[in-house]
Design brief:
CATH topology of the largest domain in chain A: BirA Bifunctional Protein, domain 2
Number of strands of chain A: 23
Structural class of chain A: alpha+beta
CATH architecture of the largest domain in chain A: 2-Layer Sandwich
CATH class of the largest domain in chain A: Alpha Beta
Strand content of chain A: 25-35%
Oligomer: homodimer
Number of domains of chain A: 3
Largest sheet of chain A: 7 strands, mixed
Radius of gyration of chain A: 25 Å
Chain lengths: 474, 474
């Protein structure tokens, strides 16, 4: 039986998405245009993402810092590509207290500027390097079209900013952090990704090059999941970050930055959820197991408590729903909220020595013995859900990944059912613009270790330079 | 031997404070006026504070959410006391993208407005209540005079906002959260506090009443550490938060809010630190123990690693300093950074079966046996430092707490050495203003369970209404 409050995702994907956000109480529209209220269910997912990523960052030697929210315009202007990229979507503070400011300030759309200004004041010698800093914060970009989590004027993210004494080390950091994101997407979010470099046109303003983690949604639309940038000496030259190297000579430092945002929550929804509500991979679900005792029987509720406490001591986040609602109501509610596993304890089952497990991903119900293996069985089921979600998404990606040799091939694919389109490219921006005319198709990234399928550009037919994956994007 | 980079706190307390902030690398001045860069050592203290408080909040049933950074002016104006209080120190966004906004927006100085607007849209019935939400975020107040951590234009904090179906329940929440703060200050920050209600003049704009946690710094100046407000129906009337009560009648909800900020880091410094740098209570120190092997001897470094791993598995956060600096340099550095315990492992000691522990608070060095009791001994030492810091602060508070019967008493105390001054008060704001003429002395809070020392107001001599503690404040 289908949840009636939720539009089918095959009928109207955009409406389905907003139905999920509302029914699972992830976010609410706020009285502030283009901004959302992160409700407890949505914010708890972000907290879990933060916890996992933060531990990974720290294990690699990164430290957290916090820099100011506001950036004076003149400071931002020192790096011309950056101001050009972000000024058109800036939120500007022009009055402070009762006075008009002498210089307007932008609410940070990203913090390269402030980090570089700070680094310029503290970096003196190669002995101070590397500096591996990260911050968790809010940023703002004055978007016209917004959609909860995917694109909002204010969003939450982390931005890592590092300084190194050599090009090699900074490039290795760019690569290392790209792999942290890839691992996070695949092994926690259960979202298979393609990684690679962006083209010149699609790279971050001010970067030498940008690496990206690209995912495919249920409807075949692509989502940029996280990015890792190599800056070379661009910012260090603009902001004067110099260090005495081992030869005792002044040298401009080498920098990187890398970030991932609350947009990942949107990706999670669009990859795994279904017509019955949210579906969460167990490793990112804030609550992994709900235990529903059916009836008020003493034996049943005490067994529920016992299982709950066993699960919790074994590192599984579970809770017992003893509220006065009917079991059917509870089942539907926990389903729409995406709790990965529901344990049902009913009188009749129990008399036969059984309890029932319901898995959210396939909605199957499994009877198991009420014995000492309960925790182990639930842990196995959580593991199985985690890998099933990844495999389902991977299969879908494979089905929705195509190769194209001509512009007509691309038109044909994108008009029928969009997805990842792999095709050769000559490296000319004009050909990228031609692709963009097809429903906004953009290069996602350059494929590194795949064998080229031809030697001709999919657009102009001239000599191909790169094998590229293309897609329609959020 | 004294750290030469740090001014003595008895000579120039303000300079001593900024010296500590700089030398312990807690914060750096930024290119943005009135805002600081939280450096790794400073931010790590905030992360530890967040972790402890967040766990306490959640254990009491609170959930985290996140609301927008910007508040439209008209929304703010619905509660007149609030806008009057905060508009003069607002940072206003007037341009978004390339356009001038139709209505300017204030960067949140606090979020009662947005929470109330949100609650008005989701609260329907007493069955929805209570709502116990909290958010961790940045806020901005356009201060003229700033000082790292104590008063900066942007700061970080948590703000809890709750909605209840009855006055009793909301008042109990106000009280409960005040006690959470009191417990946190005394048992984690090792800072003894006085708690009680603020006077009408000193309460939060828009609150029915405000409860506060008041601490005394080393120099006898008072610091408001955290506050908990009872709003009654003030905001629910202004923003239309109504619920159907058990009698099926519409009723305005009862609200509270409570907050604590990065200002607590300033309090920590000013209560415990000394002329040699930062001193941190072990329960809030991001790193509790540093192990310094003296020399490169294999036996010594492997023992350092062994002790480190033993400490970590026992829940003590420790690290080994194997850098190439001299032992003396390392000792000074870890001292200025406030690592509570230093373990020194030297060849000669080890030959006698000993290692050496140095405690940061008293700077004593203690030889202990190199045996199976090392972890237990270090844990005991950490516990002892924690309670010693609290007791030292408590003794100082007692020495700096005075009683006054006349204005001359107050003048005499405040001109010699400021501190907490306990005195009777008639309840008239004019008498508060008279007190303020004495070096800015303000009421800190009304004492609840203490026996009045007289029946006459310390200022006007008329009938006293309250027993109040007064102080000069940061």
């Amino acid at each position: 039986m289908k949840n009636k409050a939720i539009t089918s995702r095959d009928v109207d994907f955009a409406k389905w998405y907003t139905d999920i956000v509302r029914e699972a109480h992830l976010a609410d529209y706020s009285g502030v245009k283009g901004c959302i209220v992160f409700e407890p269910n949505g914010y708890a997912i972000w907290e879990k993402m933060q916890k996992v990523l933060d531990e990974k960052f720290k294990a690699l030697g990164h430290q957290n810092v916090y820099l100011p929210l506001l950036i004076p315009e003149s400071l931002m202007r020192k790096e011309s590509e950056l101001i050009e990229g972000f000024a058109p979507e800036g939120a500007w503070v022009t009055e402070g207290g009762k006075n008009k400011l002498e210089e307007r300030m932008i609410i940070r759309p990203t913090s390269e500027t402030l980090f570089s200004d700070y680094y310029a004041s503290i970096v003196k010698s190669y002995k101070d390097l590397p500096l591996l800093y990260n911050q968790w914060c809010n940023v703002m970009r004055w978007e016209k079209e917004t959609r909860p989590f995917l694109r909002t004027r204010e969003f939450l993210w982390q931005e890592g900013h590092t300084v190194h004494a050599s090009e090699e080390e900074a490039k290795a950091e760019t690569d290392r952090m790209l792999n942290v994101y890839k691992d996070f997407f695949e092994n926690y979010l259960a979202i298979p990704v393609i990684t690679g470099q962006k083209t010149e046109r699609e790279k971050f303003a001010g970067a030498e090059y940008t690496c990206t983690v690209e995912a495919l949604m249920y409807n075949g639309v692509a989502l940029q999941g996280a990015t890792s940038h190599y800056f070379g000496q661009k910012f260090s030259k603009a902001y004067g970050i110099q260090f005495l190297n081992k030869e005792n000579k002044l040298e401009n430092a080498y920098q990187t930055s890398w970030g991932a945002s609350t947009r990942m929550i949107g990706g999670l929804i669009m990859v795994h959820s279904d017509d019955n509500g949210l579906v969460l991979p167990p490793k990112i679900a804030p609550r992994q197991v709900v235990i529903v005792p059916i009836g008020q029987d003493e034996e049943i509720t005490s067994l529920a408590d016992k299982i709950n406490s066993l699960l919790n001591t074994n590192g599984i986040v579970s809770f017992v729903d003893k509220s006065e609602k009917s079991p059917g109501f509870k089942f539907a509610q926990h389903e729409v909220n995406g709790i990965p596993v529901r344990v049902e304890i009913g009188k009749r089952d129990l008399e036969n020595g059984k309890i029932c497990l319901a898995r959210r991903d396939t909605r199957e119900r499994i009877q198991i013995e009420n014995d000492d293996n309960i925790v182990k069985n639930i842990q196995h089921l959580l593991d199985d859900i985690q890998s099933n979600l990844f495999n389902t998404a991977l299969r879908r990606n494979q089905e929705k990944t195509f190769t194209a040799f001509t512009l007509d091939d691309v038109k044909d694919i994108m008009s029928k059912q969009p997805g990842f389109v792999k095709a050769m490219w000559c490296g000319d921006e004009n050909c990228e613009l031609k692709m963009k005319e097809i429903r906004g198709t953009k290069s996602r990234c350059i494929l590194e270790n795949e064998k080229p399928i031809s030697d001709k550009c999919v657009v102009c037919g001239k000599k191909a330079k790169h094998y590229v994956v293309w897609g329609i994007q959020y």
